[in-house]
Amino acid sequence: MKRFRQEVGDRLARQRRLDQAGGVAPMSAEDERQFARALIAQVLEEFARGEIGVGRTPPTAEEEEALAAGVHAALFGVGRLQPLLDDPEVENIDVNGCDRVFVSYADGREVMGDPVADSDEELVELIQILAAYSGLSSRPFDTANPQLDLRLPDGSRLSAVMDVTSRPALSVRRARLGKVFLSDLVGNGTVSPDLGRFLAAVVAARKNVMIAGSTNAGKTTLLRALANEIPQHERLITVERALELGLDQFPELHPNVVAFEHRLPNSEGQGEITMAELVRRSLRMNPSRVIVGEVLGDEIVTMLNAMTQGNDGSLSTIHANSSMEVFNRISTYALQAEERLPIDATHMLIAGAIDFVVFIEKRNDYHHGGRLRRFVSSVREVTGVDGRVLSSEVFTAAPHGGVVPHAPISCADELAHFGYDAAQEVWR
User: Fold this and answer.
1) Which one of 11, 19, 385, 408 is CB 3.0 to 4.6 Å from 351, fit for a cystine?
2) Where does the Bacterial type II secretion system protein E domain start and stop, copy by copy (predicted)?
3) Residue 343 and residue 335: Cα distance in Å, rounded?
């Protein structure tokens, strides 16, 4: 694949130089894509003839089609989305049809962008190419499979739909902070210095942490920062619906990482590997810690059981509107699981599995021109169970954002061994 891409890329560049030398106007983006398709077919035909010439079997029509799509994807990346992904200030991209593009920036601005394709059909084709080559396995995107979630090469998250909307639509949530540390989040105000020391100690003490928040609040970024506090010698196994965390992309931080990705069923409905199955499998792979990218369903029971079976130090994220609501959300997921756990049993499981819930939120900061801010506004310690989950809010929201210490931490002595001195805090 690399050789074919190089050959086609060289021929494409050669044609550009010839056009420039001859005073010919440069090809439009669409003309260049069409020309590249012709070059790809030419290169693959030459390869097939060469294979036959030395007595080997050339690629089948299906293999040749897959190779052609792969080379095209490698050459053109994400097409006209690429300039937006190259802009470090772009935060989110929403596309409602090829020519209805809305771009959100880190400073809170939202502007209308240029079309990302010449037609809705071309937009669907672009998404299909990305679906085939961006994950661990090819993901279908067609009438029979009108929903898609995947991680782009730069770490951004893409979600797309077709046929359930009048026009194909996609949303890209940028991974602007791929290699992020707690010190970075302290620097940009997401985490206060005191809270940063506390969270670092919590990870070092191998406490189980659930990060909660609304959509696009910054849960995954905070999870990455906490994961980067884990010592290098530990073996990490991540479980995700679509690869997003990317901890295996930084071997200097985490040399021993296995990333699991949920596999969808094929067109016959066979071959699916669920999140719950992957969590169970991860426990047989000698993990130091299991990190579940996002809990959205029945895998919650398997994950909580894993947390209570000696796999301390687990991290995960969940959608919720407050730190307290997390317990109800988990109970709802547990009721939907195969085990059908009743509420009281779920509460006992939560109390035995989760040590801390960290809630992160986003809010327009009108003290600084309405700029969008993300910050941790609550940390809740699980302290037991008595018909319901008992917890104490050890950090609570401050009047102008951020958090302040609010209640004593029951495991403060343990955290002190890892650099957090709760005795210096002023309780509010």
Assistant:
1) 385
2) 81-338
3) 8
CATH 3.30.450.370 location in the chain? 79-176
CA 257 to each of CA 164, 203, 249, 269, 288: distance values in angstroms, whole numbers, following the listed order: 37, 17, 9, 30, 10
**Side chain identity, residue 77:** G
Could you tell me the two tokens for 171?
């949303």
Q: CATH 3.40.50.300 occupies which residues in the chain?
A: 182-424
In terms of CATH architecture, what is 182-424? 3-Layer(aba) Sandwich (3.40)
Determine the Cα–Cα distance for residues 339 and 353; give it in Å rounded to an integer: 17
3-state DSSP assignment of residue 214 = coil
Residue 275 is which amino acid?
M
Yes or no: say if 387 and 344 are a contact pair by the CB < 8 Å rule. yes
Per-residue model confidence as pLDDT tens for the chain (428 residues): 778 877 888 888 888 788 878 877 777 767 887 888 899 999 999 999 999 999 999 999 888 888 888 787 667 667 778 788 888 889 899 999 999 999 998 777 899 999 988 899 989 988 887 776 565 566 788 888 899 888 776 778 889 999 999 999 999 988 665 689 999 999 988 999 999 999 999 999 999 999 999 988 889 999 999 999 999 999 999 998 877 888 888 889 999 999 998 887 766 777 888 888 998 898 889 999 999 988 887 788 888 887 877 678 999 999 999 999 999 999 988 888 887 888 888 999 999 999 999 999 987 665 555 567 889 999 999 999 998 999 999 999 887 767 888 899 999 999 999 989 876 654 44
Look up residue 240 and give its amino acid. E
